[in-house]
Specification:
It is a single chain. By secondary structure, the chain is mainly β. The protein has one domain: Lipocalin (Beta Barrel), CATH 2.40.128. The chain is 4% helix and 46% strand. The chain has a ten-stranded antiparallel barrel. It has a three-stranded mixed sheet with strand order 4-7-15, with no helix packed on it. A hairpin with a 5-residue loop joins strand 5 and strand 6. The longest helix is centred in the middle third of the chain and has 9 residues. The two termini are 30 Å apart. 30% of the residues are buried.
């Protein structure tokens, strides 16, 4: 099965100092109409049940930092999958072999951690990924390109990212395509469908879907500007 969920789908370049972008939180003169609600740094928390996790009915959690910037007439969407909290309470646990793993259950930030989010978390460049999204319609943006023709012995992979503003709130989609010259392409999508927007656009909540099946819910909280830290070795 092609996995393109939030866990493990993120990887590549930094955005600090990227040509043609502006500081997070500033829509800039080239921002597309309606994008002001999107531009900025966001903390994204996901609670979902993983159907492949046998033996446990507990929900699992994941979190990320999203940076959305004006980039000419379009937007740049960057994902940092390793938020750095000073207070790591409740987030990690030691396994019998000594490895660290995420805690099970629907983890929620405590008051001190919520304060860190409001001020702006540190972000690691490890597994970072970034794409430019061009306008493709009224209040719609999407990345360009597609799956390149692959030979019979090579497998090609491509992700198309998109955002759309609708009545209830933004919709964020990442569609992954995997294929080779001998096989039919396999496709999967991760969708964030906003259902409520609160706090003058500073908080959003909605449904999280992966590979076309309802998985759980997500929350987006507007942060202070995030700061970069070195990736862990």
């Amino acid at each position: 099965m092609l996995a393109c969920g939030v866990v493990g789908v993120v990887g590549v370049v930094g955005v600090a100092g990227t040509a043609g972008t502006v500081a997070a939180g500033d829509p800039g003169p080239g921002a597309a109409s309606g994008s002001e609600i999107l531009v900025g740094d966001w903390y994204v928390l996901i609670h979902h049940r993983d159907p492949s996790a046998l033996g446990s009915q507990l929900p699992v959690w994941d979190d990320q930092i999203w940076r959305i910037e004006a980039d000419g007439p379009g937007l740049r969407w960057s994902i940092f999958p390793h938020p750095e909290f000073r207070d790591g309470s409740g987030r990690w646990e030691k396994l019998p072999g000594g490895e660290e793993a995420r805690t099970l259950g629907a983890w929620e930030p405590n008051p001190d951690q919520r304060g860190e989010i409001a001020r702006g978390l540190a972000r690691s460049a490890q597994d970072e990924r970034s794409k430019r999204l061009d306008p493709v319609g009224p209040q719609r943006w999407a990345s360009r390109g597609g799956l390149r023709a692959a030979s019979a012995s090579q497998i090609g992979y491509h992700e198309r990212w998109s955002m759309e503003l609708r009545g209830a709130g933004p919709i964020f989609v990442r569609e992954a395509t995997l294929g080779s010259g001998r096989t039919l392409s396999s496709q999967a999508a991760t969708r964030f469908l906003t259902r409520t927007v609160a706090g003058d656009g500073k908080a959003m909540r909605g449904e999280y879907f992966r590979e076309g099946e309802a998985q759980g819910e997500f929350r987006m909280l507007r942060m202070g500007e995030s700061r970069a830290v070195k990736a862990r070795q």
